Amino acid sequence: AGALATLWAPRGSEAAALASQDMPPADSGRKDGWAAVLGDGATAGLRIGDGDAVLLGEGREDAGLQQALTTCIEYPGSNPAAPTLLATQRWVRDAAASEAPWRLVSHRTIPFTFRMGATVSLRCDVDGCMALGRQKRD
User: Fold this and answer.
1) The model's pTM
2) What is the C-alpha to C-alpha distance for residues 11 and 72, in angstroms, rounded to an integer?
3) On the chain, which terminus has fewer CB atoms closer than 10 Å, C or N?
4) Other residues' Cβ atoms within 10 Å of the Cβ of residue 7
5) What stretch of H or E contains 28?
6) For the segment 40-89, what is each residue's pLDDT rounded down to a tens digit?
7) What is the CA radius of gyration of the chain?
8) What 3-state DSSP class applies to 41?
């Protein structure tokens, strides 16, 4: 969790404010901090594949920030039959400084598998992740 903290846009920055566009309302579920999300071997065996990156074009700069999107397929655990997840990340950097580092604004996952075994999607920002899943109906 500590190494991940250096990638995120700082709290209170204009870049971090963009994350609110990607997060559900606070009352949509419980938000767990990164130490809990990544703790207890939660990422053991996680493999990443099929990555792609897109630099958003001219006219898409917001508050002087250049934006990019990255995507990949996450293969959780060591079971090859386990459900896969499509992960997307939004990145920003200062458009006026070509050497400025890219900072992570949001990370999201959704189930991405033929049999749809995964039923929870994640919405994450600098403070942690909120799991959104199907609700049982009585």
Assistant:
1) 0.74
2) 25
3) C
4) 14
5) none
6) 887 888 889 889 999 886 655 556 788 899 999 988 877 777 778 889 99
7) 16
8) coil
